[in-house]
Amino acid sequence: MRIAVCCTDQKVAPWIEGLAAALPEAEVFEWRPDAPEADHAVVWAPPQAFFDAQPRLKGVFNTGAGVDALLKLQLPPQATLVRLDDAGMSVQMAEFVCHAVIRHFREFDGYERDEEQGKWGFRKPRLRSDYPVGVMGLGVLGQRVAQALAAFEFPVRGWSRATKDVPGVQCFHGEQGFQDFLAGTRVLVCLLPLTDDTRDIMNRANLSRLLPGGYVVNVARGAHLVDEDLLALLDSGHLAGAALDVFRTEPLPADHPFWRHPKVTVTPHTSARTLRDESIAQIARKLRAFERGEPIAGVVDRKKGY
Ligand code: NDP
């Protein structure tokens, strides 16, 4: 079995070494335009030229969970596209989102400002029941996040396409359920894949339906959020703040208003990083199962876009 590795913006050598060690029966090599044809590919942000030169791939294993960028390319039609599922990402995502929600709920930004002024002053405790958190997307990451928030006893709501039953989470689904989901949510967390159906979903109309004083946590993709609609609702006071980890343009341009907005926290797409060792182990496991003709988790439905 031959595996071509094409990971732009990451060091390729450790991926090749790791995959070769995990799959000693395979020939693992870095892709170059003159490389031989492979049976499988392990990729992150490959150029179109990669797929043009590899028309017979059986499997394409993405080293991330989101496949929106990959689906903009022309992949060989017969190739099965497989994403990472979890591989150490869901616990990072749960940490990140719980931190953002608790920081807002417990007003830690305010206490930080007080500290700078040497001010000792309590704020009135808020009630969890006033802070229902709504998680859009109840997949691998969304479910873990929703359950971590529920463990802190926030009322947690979740929204997905198909009906779901997640312990401790009030579940909504589909178009119909979306309006009810939004209307009872004060803190909105986005963990949807980016597809034609979900692009711009956090727009003025939908964000206006959140309970007043709402807070937005976007850890999915920048194009889920309409930047100017968020800014308008922050300035009108309908929204109290936002923690944003992903942006339409990354790195976030130096002159973007999010950088300096007092109610917006910016992080550089770091909420859940790909962990190389866990990812290599998962890809190796899936590759072997795939070769044996067994079903594997994380196969992308190209029509649905995730
Ligand atoms: P999954 O594919 O496991 O879950 C996606 C969820 O979104 C599913 O519950 C699905 O519903 C739901 N969904 C999709 N389309 C719709 C729709 N139109 N309406 C309602 N619900 C919908 O993905 P993951 O949880 O693994 O990852 C989610 C996203 O997180 C990734 O696509 C990626 O963009 C982002 N991400 C961000 C990272 C970061 O560092 N910021 C790191 C990793 C991922 P159903 O279950 O019914 O199909």
From TrEMBL:
Fetch the InterPro entries from UniProt.
D-isomer_DH_NAD-bd, NAD(P)-bd_dom_sf
What top-level branch of life does the organism fall under? Bacteria
Keyword annotations: NAD, Oxidoreductase, Pyruvate
What PANTHER family does the entry give? 2-HACID_DH_C DOMAIN-CONTAINING PROTEIN, D-ISOMER SPECIFIC 2-HYDROXYACID DEHYDROGENASE NAD-BINDING DOMAIN-CONTAINING PROTEIN
GO MF, one annotated term: oxidoreductase activity
> Which organism encodes this protein?
Ramlibacter agri
This chain belongs to which protein, by name?
Answer: Glyoxylate/hydroxypyruvate reductase A
CDD domains, per the entry: GDH_like_2 (cd12164)
